[in-house]
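Researcher: For the record, we're logging two predictions in this thread. I'll number them. Prediction 1 follows.
Model: Prediction 1, sequence and structure:
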Amino acid sequence: MPPPVWTDYRAARTDLAHRIRPAAVLDVGGPDGVAFLQGQLTQDVRSLGAGETRPAAALTPKGKLLFLARVVGQPGGARLLLPLSERESALAHLKKFVLIQKVEIADRSDEFLRFALYGPRAADLDAGDGVTRLPGEGEIAAEILVPAGKREDLESALDRAGSVALTEKSAEILRVEAGRPRFGQDADSSNLADEVGLAPAISTTKGCYVGQEVVARMRTYGRVNRRLVGFRFPAGILEPGSILRLPEEAGPGKIEQGRVTSAALSPAFGPIGLGYAFREVAVGGRLVSAADPARSAVLAALPFSE
């Protein structure tokens, strides 16, 4: 039987829904704040206008991911928005490399709430004064960063607009449908930026930053061996962590050709997931579970569509 279409999921796709995204809010300023971030992040921070928002990442010298963030331009600096789970590690990394530069790093995570808005009516919401409205990403139509003291005002505005509170279950389905990777689940410190499809987060015109040589070398002389893809599961969901192989090479000890990192039962698309596949496996190609070759994963382009 097809899954039920939950009220909150339906609202997120056709009307208006919202949820709080647990977030780290880190402000970087001081005389050398912008220059510091320019050397630490893949994004061009120096050209960022006040209030402008761009995706960004921080890399190791070997080009592996440290964290993913949204960077918001501010007068004399920038604000980083990250998942709350990355708060301590990102803060420790930034403070480690400040050295003698005149940089001020303020953890303001407890001062703000990050609301995600879903659905076509998100653009019409009157969120009131004293909040920061940000563009959406992936399945999220828009974001609102609100001082913690204004939470009730924003929730009243959402209530007046008829917005539906989105459950974590529905939010995860929508995220997988959109193909937006979650750090710590679909991407981690073992991944190169280009494996995760982070092209919008990487400036090709800025000066040096940590990990740039690896990114530039990969793009000039070669391609990554694996990349983030969508999966459709014809025989039912394959759980995250499932190893995938070519149908003709499904026995023990054969070469891994893919791996599932996220999975969801979508009311719109059925059993789907995210994960990695080696570049030789094209969209539409079929891989099978190494543990149960009768169950398969068919590569799909992201985001999912009919």
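Researcher: Logged. Prediction 2.
Model: Prediction 2, sequence and structure:
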Amino acid sequence: MKKLVADRTSLIDASGIRKVFALAGELKDPVNFSIGQPDFDVPEPLKQEAIKAIEAGLNRYSQTAGEKDLMDKIAAQAAAEFGWQKPAVLVASGVSGGLLLAFLALVNPGDEVIIPDPYFVIYKHVVNLLGGKCVFIDSYPDFRLPVDKIARAITDRTKMIILNSPSNPTGIVYSPAEIEALAKVAAKKDVLVLTDEIYEQFSYDGPATSIAKHYENVLVMRGFSKSYAMTGWRLAYVAAPASLRPVIEEMTKIQQYTFVCAPTPFQRAAVAALDYDVRDLVKDYVHKRDLVYDGLKDKFELAKPQGAFYAFVKAPNGSGTEFVKRAIRNNVLVIPGNVFSEKDTHFRISFATSDEKIQQGVGILCSLA
């Protein structure tokens, strides 16, 4: 029989996460530190907006780029925040969908994409699928933005630099000085920056700085999944200055032939979400962060998370994978660091769970150290 599966599928390795769930299959009521989604529900007023849209019959396709009311509101907020005139906007099916559209529109075979390591998993695999080359920039041990290393890595083949702050998996938020320094490097070399700001509202020690405030050759990706617990609604947006409108138009064209559009009734709810204050919900995560950090810091090496809801913890025996196996055998689900990195020295904790589960899981992990 002929080979059916395309060769490109071999460029995606899901084995790290698969092993975790294979090991976890028989666990009873585990401490689940693996899931990257909030433990609160969509706020009730936003649910009602979606319900009203569904009952009003707004269940058909929207325009490919998004509902006009939502796009206008996103554009107005981007103009106010970044000082852009007439921003270009695309409503996407999640930030992951936006990332896929951006990579499809921008990356040619052989193009280099600079990615600080550790990184969100999708970056590496989609770049590889498209024949691009990932240029990983080591940010260990403290995971600060390695601006000098990035500057040295830029070549004539560099297509873009990827920025993710607040970060998945490290929980690090880059400082204003680091962001400004990278903006100067990117401007000097005229390199596009793609900034993934899905956790932008989960910043615990002050607002997260967007590079879009300092540099115009940038695609900004933000979403509704984390801040409003809409992970299953698959809704996000891409914003860019008018100079990058041709890129947004190409992404929109690709969306027409892939996702078609983002879910229409949820776009109506997103209009209201852009005005919804989630600060009280985020405050709970400051407490959860402290429970994790204070509980682990005497037994493990870890950088204190400043945003998102993750901690990236050094494994005490040198192998993240081996420590994860031990943790799972003791009823704690964590993810090996090599899912998010070219190294296998750490493991990722998501503290998006109850305080009781955090205390239980931290106790077990400390006993294993």
